[in-house]
Structure formats: C-alpha cells, structure tokens
Amino acid sequence: MNLLFLLRPKDETVYITSAATVRQGLEKMRAHGYTAVPVIDPEGEYVGTVSEGDFLWALCERGPVKELEKLSVREILRGKRDSAVKVGAGMDELLLLIMEQNFVPVTDDRGKFIGIVTRRDIIKYFYDKEHKETGE
C-alpha cells in the first residue's frame, strides 16, 4: 500500500515555521492542543519537530518569557527528532518509526514537507490488514 492513502496533507496539518517566535509557536500548539508539531523552514523543507519539552527547556535555559519572544522556533529545537520519510516509503518503514514517534512527517523527493501520517492511522492500517487476512 502507498502511504499517500494515509497522508494528512500539509494544508490539513498544524505546523510551525522555523522563523516563528517561541511565543507564536506556543500559542499555535495551545490553540490546537498538540504536544508536538512539525517545523518547516521558509522554503517548505521539514527541519524537525518542536515539542512542549523544547519550549520548557527554552524557558528554563533562557529565562523570562519576554526574552523568549526574541527567539525563533529554530533556536529551541533540541536535535532532529521525529524522522521524516520520503513519499515512496513503505508501510514497514512507517511502522518502525511510529513506535518512537506520535506522527511521521512526509516529504517529497525534494525534501519539501507535504504532510504527516499519524500513529492512529498506521495502527488502523495494520489492524485492518490483519483482520482482513484472518477473516475476523
């Protein structure tokens, strides 16, 4: 199966640009109730995932909230987590990644962010596949 059948396209996905301020990132995450979201650069390439923990560490390390308004989201990313896959990735590759991530970012062949595949959708795919094969 092609992962495009499970893809939540970019225009239906919450993401943050790397140039957004920490405050803007926090507000977006709070508004949508997510604990982590993909980060893309101005050219649309996936650069990582920012989490609540990244914001907390920035607050602890950088001090007052007013200071955080001067920081961009790119400056608080703590390593590249949540590996992305190319659009042609197989379901087994998605399954291996989703064991460690809440979602898998998907990029096209140029590295441009095109959307995500969620843990729920991957689990449902394998559940449905198993029950179809066993006839249960």
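^ that was protein a. below is b, sequence first then the tokens
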Amino acid sequence: MTKPFAPSCERNQAVILDALQSIITVDDKHLLEIGSGTGQHAVFMAAHFPHLNWHTSDLKENHVGIKMWLDEAKLENISEPIVYESGKSDFPDIDVDIVFTTNTIHIMSWQNVKNLMKQLGENLKTGAKIIIYGPFNYKGQFTSESNAQFDVWLKQQEPHRGIRNFEEIVQLMADVGIDLKQDIEMPANNRILYFVKE
C-alpha cells in the first residue's frame, strides 16, 4: 500500500498550526484528534508540541495509512490510532485536555454531528478545549461561491454530507455546556471554532 497523501493537508497545516499555537499551552498534556484521516496533520502538528501526547483516531479502514505516517515520523508523542466513529463507538477513554478535528463536520451525517457533540458534553472535563477546523455557513448562507460548489460536490458524493451552519453548531455545543470562545477566520473560506467545556 502506498502511503496516503491529502494535498489539502499540505496546503493548510501551517496556518492551522499558527492557530493551535495560540490556543494550546504547556499545561495541556493530552490531545485527541477525531478523524485523523491520512495522519499528516498529526505528524506535522505533534512535532511542534513535544510536551503534548497526541492521540489519533479514525475509522478502522484508515488505520493502516495513519500508521505509515506515524512509523515514518517516529515521534514519541503520537499514539497508535484508536477506532472511533461517531454514532457507533463509545468516546475514547482518555483524560483529554483538547479535542481537535479538521474537515470532519461536513463529512459526517447531521445525526452523527449531534452524537459527537453529545459525547463531548458527557465525556470532557471542565476546562477541556475543542478546536474544529473547516467551512461553515453563516445565517444559512455560503461564505463564497467556492463553498457553494463544494457543498454540491459533497452531496453528490454522499447525500448526508454538507457544509453546516455555524449557529447550529454553536447551539448544539451550548446545549451540552460547551461555549464558543473564538471564531477564527482562516484562508480558503475556512474557520477555526474554538470552544471550552464549562
């Protein structure tokens, strides 16, 4: 098997790192990445946070690719991938300080997005941080023509996919005791939503 490679990871990882460096502190010890995909983000980001134990997770079928990236990087602060799928899996039994996920919310079904938010509320400790990267709509409107085209493409792949509304995500999180702290503008019409469990 060839090591998987996602060009989008290569393009956006530096700007995502900048945002993470403004949020992650030396007191944060364990980060759970939901939907690690190829494993590229984990390898790139974890190298910049040597004090942080980075826990990868994804569907079982993606683990071989993630392990290829991890084996090549040989970083001591990244853990082997955990099997996790919202709506099917129990939340990983880790005392996490941070949950980080990129480009997953528009891939998951809306029901599984709600399941994930519910699990975050039930399992995270007070003060835990949640960092979500990806495109969002505001007041039901696309923020660019490219996002509108992307949404069409997503639904052609799987009807349950689509760019989610910022306000609905914030409300779902608020309903489980997780408050929005920052909405950070990113390149290419993406955002980082930074929440804290209260």
